[in-house]
Structures are given as C-alpha cells and as structure tokens.
Amino acid sequence: MTEKYNNDNIIKNQKILAYVKLVFLFVIVIGLPAYIWFFQHQLIDSVSSVNKVQNLLNSNRMLSVPIYIGAQILQIVICIIPGQWLQMGAGLAWGFWLGCLYSIIGAAIGSFLTYYVAKWLGKDAMYFIFGQEKMDHYVERLRSRKAIIIVFFIFLIPGVPKDLCNYAAGVSEMKLKPFLAASLLGRIPGMMGSLLIGKNIAASSYISAIVIAVIALVLFVLGIIFHKHIFAFIERKAVKSPHPDNNDSKNDLTDNK
Questions:
Q1: What residues have CB less than 8 Å from 180, skipping those under 6 apart?
Q2: Per-residue confidence (pLDDT) for residue 252, from 0 to 100
C-alpha cells in the first residue's frame, strides 16, 4: 500500500513538473516576447539606435548599470533586442573598460540562464522551439573533444547564429564552465568593436568610429559568406577526435558539478 502511494505521488509530481515546464516554455517562447512587443514596445524602441541607448542610460543614471546588464541578459535569453546598439551605447556612456566589464557580466548571466533553462526544460522542449534537426546538429558538434573550439568560433565569427548554441549547450554533455569561457572569449572581440565605436563617437573621433564600423561590416559580410566553410573545416577536425567514452575524458568535458 505504501509503495503504491509513493508511486502515485511520484507520478503526480512528475505531471505537475511537466505542466510547470509547459507553462514556462510558453512564457519564454511566446508570452514574454509578445508582452514586450505589444505592451512594452518602447523598450525595444529605446535600444534601437546608439543615441536612444545613450538617452536611456543618461535618463536613468542611478539605475543605468542594472538597466544595461538586464537588457544585455534579455537580449541573450529571448533574442529580440539588438546587442550591437546596446554595446555602442555602453561605450558612449562609460567608455571602453567599464562598458566591457558590464557587457561581459550581462553576457555571462544571460548565457548561464539559457544554459540552465535548456537543461531544466529538456531536449524535447528545445526541439519544439528550434526544431529537432537544428538542435541535434549543434548538440552533436558539442559532443566532440573540440567542442570548446567550436563554441569559440560560433561566437567569434560575425553573422553566425549564436542564440541556438546557448540552449544546445544546456542539453548537450558540455560542462557549464568550458561553455561560458569559450562563448565569452568568442563574444569579446565583437563587444570590443561595438564599445570602441561608441567610445570614439563620445570623444568626437568620428573617423576612427567609421573605420571600426567599416571593418566590422566587412567581417560581418565575410562571416555570412564563409562561415559554412570555416565550420566544415572545424567539424572535419572534430570528427577525427570524437568525444571519448573513457571516464577521465568524459569527466573532463561533461561533468556539470
């Protein structure tokens, strides 16, 4: 009798958890983006250009840092806020080094959240959001011993879709720490470029800002054109070094403690 009661409780708790996950999935995929788009559209508008980001931060001096970090997190989690304008605005408001620090903090928190949201919701939920083929493609690449290199280049190369990788890492065997390290290192050059543009605009060094912007645009276009070739090369190398089955190597990449 006691065993049956315990089993019933386990099944009941599993159903409750499944419903909670379903509601949470609805909020993340539909609810929150729809709410911001239809009822808080001024939030998107307030970060739709460098000047608007600067005005947002200047008009909320006491809360400018948490506002910026929060926007950076939101941009990673639900992907409807343009990150480049945010970072240029940070360069205008705080200069290069402080802007870089706040950007890294926001990116780290956002990546941490997406990693564990995906891990908690599970692979089926990620299939629902992104599609099974795309998700399996990323997860398979993250099983490689060269997963850290692959993640680094995903976040380094301009024009490559990066948001899916955050969630794929959460349902893969990759540890959080290597993922965070590789993704942040990959993000930093792009952040630095945006921050330097903002810093130079603030210093009225418009020629420097234009030069950096042109270089960034060229790299973005090249990234779109050649990213498949780059990743084909990396993946060929990764196939030669598949994720090992021995315990020592497995613990090295997949232990989430």
A1: 108, 111, 112, 115
A2: 41
**With contact defined as beta carbons under 8 Å apart, do 89 and 56 qualify?**
yes
Predicted local distance difference test score (pLDDT) of residue 254: 40
The model's pLDDT over 202-211, given as tens digits with 9 standing for 90+, comes to 888 989 999 9
Residue 165 confidence (pLDDT): 87
The answer as to whether 12 is a domain residue is: no
DSSP state letters, 102-127: HHHHHHHHHHHHHHHHHHHH-HHHHH
How many domains is the chain partitioned into structurally?
1
Residues 6+ apart with CB under 8 A from 87: 99, 103, 191, 194, 195, 198
Q: What are phi and psi of 142, to 5 degrees?
A: -80, -5
Question: What range defines the domain where residue 66 resides?
Answer: 40-254
User: 3-class secondary structure for 10-50?
Assistant: HHHHHHHHHHHHHHHHHHHHHHHHHHHHHHCHHHHHCCCCH
Q: Which residues of the chain have pLDDT under 50?
A: 242-257
> Which SS3 state, helix, strand or coil, does residue 238 take?
helix
Q: Are 90 and 99 in contact (CB under 8 A)?
A: yes
Q: Compute the distance between CA of residue 173 and CA of residue 117 in angstroms, rounded to an integer.
A: 15
At 254, list the tokens. Answer: 């997949």
Give pLDDT, residue 1. 56
